[in-house]
Amino acid sequence: AKKHGKQRSVWFEPVMEQELKFRSQLENGIRAGIAAGEFVPFYEQQVDVESGRLTGFEMLARWQSPALGLVGPDIFIPIAEEIGVIDELSECLIVQAFRDAREWSPDLTLSVNISPVQLRDPWFSQKLLKLLIQHSFPASRLEIEITESCLHDNIASVRSMITSLRNQGVSVSLDDFGTGYASLSQLRTLPFDRIKIDRSFIREINNGEASSKLVDAIVAMGAGLKMPITAEGIEDEAILETLQSMRGLKGQGYHYGYPENAAGVIDRLREHDLL
Ligand code: C2E
Ligand code: CA
Ligand code: CA
Ligand code: CA
User: Fold this and answer.
1) Which residues form a coiled coil (predicted)?
2) Is 7 exposed, middle or buried (0-12, 13-18, 19+ CB in 10 A)?
3) What is the distance in A from the centroid of ligand 1 to the CA of 61?
4) Rounded to two decimals, what is the model's pTM?
């Protein structure tokens, strides 16, 4: 047994140690990166599917890490939540986004992703209102995106949070719809302004009649609930054409362009004579 133990330690410990070390380097890097302003907003176009008209941008967080390069949110958001800095991180991104979006045409909206951890804070809507006022950004241009996983939490408090955000003039969208948590009965009682169909459904839309019928059904459900639909993950012309046969959709995805930084957005707006 002793021998085994020894072998085990020789084989496993260095790997685990390395992982722990990497993890704590990441944590420290994130903390330091917030202070150093390494977290920046990128933006993805949101478009009216039928007309192709640009309606706004979704802010997507990026970490310009000196050590790691450009890091995506799937890596650092969960860690920021765990180590308790998501509030701080989100605030610094939102403030940058308000500044950026003030340079755009005032009828373009700004969508911001909010983590379930933030939504659990009973003061969240107050804090957001304070930021809106401090940076004189109109609430009517702001759209909050919350994922279905929020609906895991106490549904009454989620409902009252949505309501108080909407009373402030902010719109609230249900993100990643169809990936697992929202039940239809919950949807009926939650006052979302919009539903965003997860890109896994959109990607499959031309692969068999069942796939497009499913999206059709979600669009019809949205119409019934008076919650307009956004299709995310539009990657090519063929997907776009199928979606254009459905009424009233907004869309986003690589077909319209990859997420880009604030300067890229300004170039894009000039290109389209929107600036
Ligand atoms: P999401 O809100 O569903 O954002 C869409 C993700 O899909 C983005 O990935 C975007 O770059 C990617 N995407 C856009 N169009 C296409 C497409 O046509 N095809 C494919 N395959 N992917 C596409 P990203 O930027 O890596 O963000 C991942 C997730 O991280 C987001 O998913 C969002 O839930 C979260 N996130 C991003 N920024 C923030 C933030 O500031 N705060 C919080 N809490 N979460 C954030
Ligand atoms: Ca989103
Ligand atoms: Ca999404
Ligand atoms: Ca997602």
Assistant:
1) none
2) exposed
3) 8
4) 0.94
